[in-house]
Each structure stands twice: as structure tokens, then as C-alpha cells.
Amino acid sequence: MVATNPLFSGGWSMRKFNATVVNDIWPEVAFFTLIATMVATITEMKIHNLAVNSSLLTVLGTVLGLVISFRTSSAYERYQEGRKMWTNISIASRNIAQIIWIHVPLDRTDKDNKKMTTVESIIEKKSMINLVQGFSVAVKHFLRGENGIYFQDLYPLICLLPRYANTVGPMTSADMLPLWAASEDEEHPLHTARPPPPSRSATVDARTAVNSVIDDDHKSEQSWFRSMTSRRNNGRAASVDPEKALADIQSHRPLKPARDPPEPSVYDYFPFLRIFSIFTRCCRRKNKKRAPRDALGRKIKPSFTESNVPFEICIYLNGYLAYLLRNGWLQPALATGLMNNIAALQDTMSNLDRIGNTPLPFAYQAHLRMSLWLYLLLLPFQVVSVLHYLVIPGTAFASFLLLGFLEIGQEIENPFNYDLNDLDLDGFCLAIQRELHEVTAHTLRDPSHYVFSAWNQPFAPADRRNAHELTDNVGEEYQHADHTDSEPGLASLRRTLLKNWRDVDRITRQG
Fold first, then answer.
1. Which terms in the Gene Ontology molecular function aspect does this entry carry (predicted)?
2. How far apart are CA 419 and CA 19, in angstroms?
């Protein structure tokens, strides 16, 4: 997602123009400009007068402008709704993580009197929070039409989930659970025998072997966040690689990059060369992933296919909730909150699927585009008698303006891909990852360990003594006898709090 003007920030690069729709509309703009040139030349050279009455120009232009405005507004509404849905995922993820990390006890004994140690409890809770993080990553790949679980940012988070329905005896493909069965292929089948747990050295060797297979061009996409660098500190480019923050887990097949956008080509930077692409088609490398385009050069959005990965993760989260309830380790009110937040994840997933899989009807889009083409095609004939040769730049500007708005609506209608104007799904997932790790960073100490300290002035600005001084000198001021209260000194405390409110109200309203 482009948050700042890419044309006037940072160094010069032809890649910046990918944030505009120039590369998508230039063939149509060139076509209508050519028509205007022919009409102006024939009319002005007195070969034939092609001018027609312009009475319909104003009426048709007004109606067409309103329709294009509606098209763009409806697309932007979907764009904003997609952003709101990702905010809901972030909120629900934080709530689930806080309930699990704070309210699930550490010292636990189940109904079979099996005691769980503190270390085991922390490992269990952190693993379930990793599943919450995996949900947002799985949604990101689903919205981009990338199915399965074998991605470098997803597999380390959910590879602990069981692969087969039977835990004992021979394991065959008939016993494979849906999460893994939907991601399998014939080239890299999952072993029927349970593989040994990977050691760290074996994991590093496997990762090295996988990386050596990928060619040099594709390897530059593995550190997928390096392209999002910024010039800071004396012109140095600061880059980060979030894959280093994930676990090193050996997989039975090579993992796909976390971010795999279509590779830009020379035709994206110099659109007019696309007419020669038919002659170079036989020389292209077939393993390159390029952005598909239609006959007019507009980018074709990838279509969604059914994915059950986010749904399966929600099933395991609900199973963990049932496990906590069976053993009485979670209060009913907190269990309700946890269940509601898991349901919010599923509801948000359904809404994102609706946004991505429900474009405007084809009949509406086709009729609008044909109406605009007819308007731009007849425009030179109606204004050539007034503008003369100026009809050429005038038609070029009008076609650029109207076709640009129409294409913007087409581009942001599905804002979940790799275009520069799409939503920053990678950034959203990284923000959720940081927030979940911040939740698990807290040691959950007893409040008495940090409340009654010299760093706390609870009654400031009315009373600037710290909590340690207040508890040591409780007999000086707050110990005045007040037999109407259960504890002596409560009336004085209430007067201090009332004075505190007056001081704060006065100070914050000054000026």
C-alpha cells in the first residue's frame, strides 16, 4: 500500500510508476488520441468535414461521469471495508492472546490428577498463541490465491498440528487430516511413517539445500521484506528480514516464499514495447512468474480458490477452548470472551472472502466500459469544429482522465494482491506478530510487586509522595480517626482524590 507520494520520495526508479494506472490505460489512450488525430487532420485539411452536432456531449458526459463516480466509490468502499476487516483480525488476535496468556493458570492439575508444570503450561500457551498468529498469515495467503501451508512464514507456526487421524499404527494417505491433505502434491508426498524430530543441524542443512535449488533471481524474493527498504541515516538503506524471527523447522518439501509477487518485466516500465512481446514470447523463461495481462494490457487479478487453512486453525483454537473448559481452567465469562473472539476471526474471514470473491457484475462493467469507449470515440467529432487541432491533446486528456478513474475502481476493487495500491497485508501480519509477542513478553507478576514502590505516585498532583512513603507514613495524615469507615484514613484519601480531580481539571484546561 502506497502511503506517501512515490514519485517525489526517495531515489529515482521506473518502478515508481507501477503505483499509477498509466501502464494499464495507455493502449486505450493512444487509440483514442489516434482517432482524434485522424479526425482533426481530415477536417482541418478540408478533405471532409467530420464535425457533428455536440448537443449530446453535455448530457452523455454528465450521466457517464455520475456512473464512473459510483463505480469508483463502490470500489473504494470495498477497499475501506477490507482494511476494517484486517483491523478486526488484529483486535481479535490480541484479545485471544491476552485471555490465553493471562487468564489460563500456570499451575494446573487436570481431572485425572495429572499435574502440569509451569514450563509445560507456558509452552502450551505460547504454542496456541502462535496458532493465532498463523491465522492472519493463512488469511493473507488465501486472499492472494496462494493455497496450502507450505510457505516460509506459515509452516513454522502450524507444523506442530497433527497430520494423521490415527496416532498409532501405520499411517496412510487415507488417514491424513484435511489441513494436510489439501496441501499435498504428487511431487513431494508426505511420508506415511512419522519422521523423526529434526535437530537444529539437520534443519540448517535442509534449509541450505532448499535454498541452493532456487535460482538466483527467485532467491532475491525469499527475504521478501528487503524490497521495503527506506533511505535513512546518511543514505544507508535499512532493511529487515522477518523470516529470521520464525522457527527453523525442517519440511519434507521446499517451502514457498512468504511473499511471491509477479516479477516485473521491461513491458511494465516501457509499455509501448508490449507490442513486440509476441516476438519474444518463445525466449521467456517459463519458471518466471509474471503479472498476467489482457489484450489491452490491463493486469488480470488472480482468482480465489477454496482454502481450509484459516478454518482449520479456528477449529484447533475452539478445541483448545473446550479442553480448558473440560478441566475447569477457565472461568465461564472468560470462556465466552474467548469463544466470541474466535468467532470474530471466522466472521472476518468470511467477510474478506466475500469482498474478494464478489466483484461487480460483468454486465455492469462491460456496459460501462463500452459506453465510455463510445463517448470517447465520438468526442473528437463533436468538438473538432471548436478546438480544431487542439482536439488531439483534449481527447488525450479526457481519455486519460475518464479511463484512469475507471481503472482505479477496477484495481482497488480487490485490494489483497501485490499491487502497490493494494493493502499492505504483509505489514498487517507483522504488526499482529509484534503485538502477540509483546503480550507473551509479560511475566504477569503480582501487582504488589510493583505497586508499592518508590516509582509510583498514585495521588499526584495533589499528593506527590510515592507509594512506599505513603505506606510507611500511614499514621501521619491518612491515619486520622474516622470511625464511620471500615478503615481509618479513608475520608482523608477521598478528600485527596477529590483535590486531585480539581487540580487536573484546572491544569489541563489552562490556555
1. chloride channel activity
2. 7
